[in-house]
From TrEMBL:
Record-given protein name: RagB/SusD family nutrient uptake outer membrane protein
Native source species: Pedobacter cryotolerans
Organism placement in taxonomy: Bacteria, Pseudomonadati, Bacteroidota, Sphingobacteriia, Sphingobacteriales
Keywords for this protein: Cell outer membrane, Membrane, Signal
Family: Belongs to the SusD family.
Gene3D superfamilies: 1.25.40.390
């Protein structure tokens, strides 16, 4: 039954991937983390392969590419660009249950959860004593729990309440679970992260492996994103993260120049070694957002450029956006003149460019937010942190001098600091600012873009294929 269930999921995911018009075909690659034989369930080496499978499953469309579509294109940071109807629907808030990205992302995240569940189900039963040397068994279980929490964190923010699948289904009833409530999903996320925290290691060979810093940072973000944020918990876990030995990189552009991977600011970072590398883990983002010849995806918005310019933020603007003259190209654009056309500049090193899942500036600004929300006088302590982030890019201190002004200052600082890293839409959602911000969007000529966003459009629809398979999904 397990094999049949996972075969259905795999078939659906493959079909959706083919629909989506990806520029790189993941099906050309032999999975570098493929697990074969009973070794996966009987030995310490097999446990490591299962864990590698859980990490390796993250090298899919969602974590390589769609995180930016969902986090930045949905928001006021980027237009869809390109010619992909699914991306354009998401940009314009017209996506329905047959949207290819919506189905692909649901399938991809639940496939990731399946991989984490296999670790959590099988590793406790492996009798190989080598697995307990130096507490490795507990580390693996903590890493898998963290990954599962992270995947559900994306699901709950994109779809609201979703089915909680915490073990491999063995019958039809377990396959066709109804949606849990948003609160139930968040409770499970926190449970998984709290289990993981004492078990995972403090440091690892690279920033792609789960450590205490990652768990602490996720807990800070989860407590801020809950329907009723717990700002004391946000500050607690932000402080724990900051105390974990991280430090801001002195030169902002070094975060994205390709020469400073796994740097002191990085907390969690996708590790890419190129499509021809030993693991075949290439980040194809550069090929679809930069270059000419055909219209690229994820075009920076007029509104974002204006935000950089209003702030006088030259350093972060130049690191984030690169303007080019593409007048001779055969495509057209509704938002920009081709004589001075913007491309995202944070991903420059072809398929070797790593991407950040979490970095210290994000968590520092989250702590500033927690301080500001804790009391009407908290803005003063928050200002110290905001000014630290601004100083790195040669900006003066924020003029915000009360709680309301600081709230907007932090929102803007997060936008300029973290543009194109997949955070903006989720920031707007958790602060209940998405509707007002998106409905105020204008093009370069000052005409309203008429997104007509309502509360009903803030979440993705359940994919139609899932509704057809599961009558308990509403």
């Amino acid at each position: 039954m397990k094999l049949n269930i996972y075969s259905l999921v795999a078939a659906a995911t493959i079909a959706l991937t083919l629909q989506s018009g990806c520029k790189k075909d993941f099906l050309d690659k032999q999975p570098f983390n493929q697990v074969t034989g009973d070794v996966a369930f009987t030995t310490a080496a097999g446990a490591e392969k299962l864990m590698a499978g859980a990490y390796g499953g993250m090298y899919n469309d969602y974590h390589i590419w769609d995180y930016m579509v969902n986090g930045d294109v949905t928001s006021d940071n980027a237009y869809a660009g390109g010619d992909n109807p699914a991306n354009i629907q998401i940009d314009l808030f017209t996506a329905n249950s047959t949207n290819g990205n919506v189905g692909r992302d649901w399938g991809g995240l639940y496939s990731n959860i399946k991989n984490a569940n296999e670790v959590l189900e099988n590793v406790p039963n492996i009798q190989d004593q080598a697995l307990d040397a130096n507490g490795r068994r507990n580390q693996i279980l903590g890493e898998a729990s963290t990954l599962r929490a992270y995947f559900y964190f994306h699901l709950v923010r994109l779809w609201g309440g979703v089915p909680l699948i915490l073990k491999s289904p063995t019958n039809l009833e377990e396959m066709q679970k109804p949606r849990s409530t948003v609160d139930e999903v968040y409770a499970q996320i926190i449970k998984d992260l709290e289990y993981a925290l004492p078990n995972v290691r403090t440091s690892a060979p690279n920033k792609g492996i789960i450590t205490k810093g990652i768990v602490n940072a996720l807990l800070a973000k989860v407590y801020a994103a809950k329907p009723n944020p717990d700002w004391a918990k946000v500050q607690q876990y932000a402080d724990a993260t900051i105390a974990g030995g991280y430090s801001l990189v002195g030169t902002f552009d070094h975060l994205f120049d390709g020469a400073h991977k796994n740097n002191s600011e990085s907390i969690w970072e996708m590790q890419y070694d190129g499509w021809g590398g030993p693991s075949g883990r290439g980040n194809w983002m550069t090929g679809v957002i930069v270059g000419t010849g055909w219209k690229r995806f994820c075009t920076p918005t007029n509104d974002l450029i204006a935000a950089f310019d209003t702030e006088g933020d030259i350093i972060r603007k130049n690191s984030s956006v690169n303007f080019r003259n593409v007048s001779t190209e055969g495509w057209s654009d509704d938002y920009w003149s081709k004589a001075n056309y913007p491309f995202i500049n944070k991903y420059r090193n072809d398929d070797l460019a790593n991407s950040y899942i979490l970095r210290l500036a994000d968590i520092k600004l989250l702590k500033a937010e927690a301080l500001n929300e804790a009391s009407t006088s908290g803005w003063s302590a928050a200002k110290t942190i905001v000014d630290e982030i601004r100083l790195r890019v040669n900006l003066g201190g924020t003029p915000a001098n009360n709680q309301a002004a600081m709230r907007l200052a932090i929102e803007n600082e997060r936008r300029l600091e973290l543009a194109f890293e997949g955070h903006r839409w989720f920031d707007l959602l958790r602060t209940n600012r998405a509707v007002v911000v998106m409905n105020a969007q204008k093009n370069g000529s000052g005409a309203n873009l008429n997104y007509n966003v309502t509360a009903a459009k803030l979440l993705f629809p359940i994919p139609q294929a899932e509704l057809d398979r599961n009558p308990n999904l509403k």
